[in-house]
Amino acid sequence: MKQILWFRRDLRVTDNAILANANKDVLPIFIFDKNILEKLPNDDKRVTFIYKSVLNLKTNLKKIGLDLAIFYDNPKSVFTKLKKYGFDEILCSVDFDSYSISRDKEIEKILPLNRYLDSFILNPNEHLKKDQTPYKVFTPFYKSLDPITSSSKISTFELKNKLNKIDFDYSFIPSLEMMGFIEQKLPDFLEKKPAELLNTFKEKIEKYDKARDYFYMDDTSKISVHLRFGLISPKEVFNYLKSEQNLNSESFIRELFWREFYNYILFHFPSSQTQNFQDIKINWSDNKEHFEKWCRGETGVPIVDAAMRHLNNTGTMHNRLRMITASFLTKNLFIDWKKGEKYFALKLLDYEASSNIGSWQWSASTGTDANPYFRVFNPYSQSKKFDPDAIFIKKVIPELRDVNPKLLHIENGLLEDIFIKYPKSIVDITNSRRQAIQNFKKAKN
């Protein structure tokens, strides 16, 4: 049996499904997929992070007697060439977004493709309601998982068989420059290993339930990028937190299963990637100027502008800020959530299709278990409540650092300061909220 171990978003050797299910003669590979990379800007930070992670995976595979063949090509071309070497099958982890599904269907026409659940804890085919239909609301879904969430440990994959490295030229390593990218400086937390991040986070987890909304504080786990690309598995995160005695990790565990829920929804309702989950047709605004100002962080609303500028500069955004900016785009500017989702997909270091789509549909009141359409975040009350001293805004927008924080939490409050040249809000918050509610009522009726 000659197997290809196709690493994708499982860039680790621990709790790895394809290593655990491999048998004897193997060729581990990673493909820098041209179909994906050619759509990205040359300064995409994620490519630098993935590149370093792939090289680290190669090192770790060598420690267990294997290696990693690295390709820069499209998958179809790679497997067409590898088929000539007489391989019997490909082992890989399963992905649920539309590109991954179509890609895998194309590859299994070349060689048998065995997919394993590796990036998530739950198999979406399981955990159905009594009538064998999928859950659409998180709370009953989560309650049904009590035997799992209340357990002290979830079993992980272990390397059972002695694997032999197939003779192959493992020496080729494409450079970032060769692939058309410029090496980027990564945020400090991405230079750390997942275990380091979890060790730091466990000291903060007791106050996570309340502190997680205060976006100026440094109290989140910072593990989402590592989870996204599989430097650590969600089961390993779960087990780590559960293994710490007297550690109140329930709130964080719940968030871990929100990630599972959105993947579950995308699996059962794949059309939700490009369509409203709810059967509702909305006549969104096509104001290109408003959308571009939102993207650049030039809306005249300090908290929205700071959040978007921070995203553009760092590739990161706190979850509370994601909700604020998404609500502003879809409710106050009344612009289609799909445009915002696509922009976040381009910018977020931790971009996860299922979570991003689910969260945007939640904010737009078009998704499963969505925010009610009449609930519209007021960005000024949000910034006042979760960052009263405007620490985050002032850090991101230095020209506002000497402004009285109170003015930043009042609509167009900065117009009262003649020494500050800051644009007026592009929409009236109250009127746009009222109009959005009316538009949703019409759409639902």
From TrEMBL:
GO terms for biological process: nucleobase-containing compound metabolic process; response to light stimulus; response to stress. It comes from the Bacteria. Its cofactor is FAD; (6R)-5,10-methylene-5,6,7,8-tetrahydrofolate. Keywords: Chromophore, FAD, Flavoprotein, Lyase. Gene3D superfamilies: 1.25.40.80, DNA Cyclobutane Dipyrimidine Photolyase, subunit A, domain 3, HUPs. Pfam families: DNA_photolyase, FAD_binding_7. The record marks W284, W337, W360 as: Electron transfer via tryptophanyl radical. Transmembrane segments: none annotated. InterPro entries: Crypto/Photolyase_FAD-like_sf, Crypto/Photolyase_N_sf, Cryptochr/Photolyase_FAD-bd, Cryptochrome/DNA_photolyase_1, DNA_photolyase_1_CS_C, DNA_photolyase_N, Rossmann-like_a/b/a_fold. One of its GO terms (molecular function) is DNA binding. Binds 1 FAD per subunit. Belongs to the DNA photolyase family. This is Deoxyribodipyrimidine photolyase. The gene is phrB.
